[in-house]
Amino acid sequence: MFVPLRWLREPPRHLLVCERSHVRHERSSHVARVRDHAFNCRVTFLIPNCGLVPDIFKSAVASLGEYYLVKNLPLHEIVTEEFISTFVKKGSCYALTYNTRIDEDNTAALLPTVINIDLTEPTFGPDSKRYKRVIWALKEKKPLEFDFLLAWHHTGSEESTLMSYFSKNQIQALQPKVTFSTLRNLQCPVLENNKLKGEPEAACSAQEFFEWFGAILSCDDLENTASSFLSTYSCPQPSTFVDQALLCTITGFILPEKIIHILEQICCYFEEPKLAEWISLVVHGFADSPVSWKENEHGFLRGGENLYNLVIFRSLDYWLQMAVGAHDDCP
Fold this sequence. Notes:
By secondary structure, this protein is of the alpha+beta class. The protein has helices at 5-9, 30-36, 55-62, 81-86, 129-141, 162-165, 206-217, 256-269, and strands at residues 15-22, 40-48, 67-74, 92-97, 109-110, 145-153, 170-174, 177-189, 239-254, 278-285, 306-313, 317-324.
């Protein structure tokens, strides 16, 4: 088939969706958007005009909790009646295949809400024909095994733990890795909460900020000097310099419930007067996750992008930016 050279030169499609609202607005969707993005591998937040780690953020990252890596786990083990009644129906249980490539390998994921096999469906019981057929298909007809990342969020005083439940398997408890750093003399875009599209000589747009924050996270030198060969990118205008800014990065298997807690602490941070006019929090999903938001199928193509950024202003207005790659539907 003939493919025009123009098509080969065109970059792959990427999608950036932006929303604006207030965290206390009754129709605000930010919590639902965070909860719908289940599989997160990195969380980063930036606080301008802040040098020391506030206590509320120390406690927030300290309470992230463990997650687990289970080696060679048969897929049918997470659809048994015992597993469903112990974990799926008593909290939010997440599982994602580890070190699998979405564009080449078999992959599997367990969401706390609904997947192709709905484990919470009332008719999905041990005596039903559907349940027996699923167990037969996964255990006998196609007995798949994976290394799984597993995590369980629950609010009750349940005695069962994933560590004890899979004690006969090769299981390892892991903690998210947390790093704090201070950026000095940082050039930041000027933002106005009610100007999502920006305004010439007054405020930068949400898209300009999104690109700038990405450059900060990739440690690019934004001075754009003649001797800089790594990047010709520079901070969008108008901009301002801050003496210092606190950057926190969390990596691991990070649950939406934990991210919601961090967002709550950001709102608490602004209850008292602060020099910071905004805080930005970006969340990266696993590049090889089979889903992005909700049950929307996720593809890899060139980068596997699925991430979102929240800019929370001192007034508790916010911008929400959601980005996906070429094979994904609009969040």
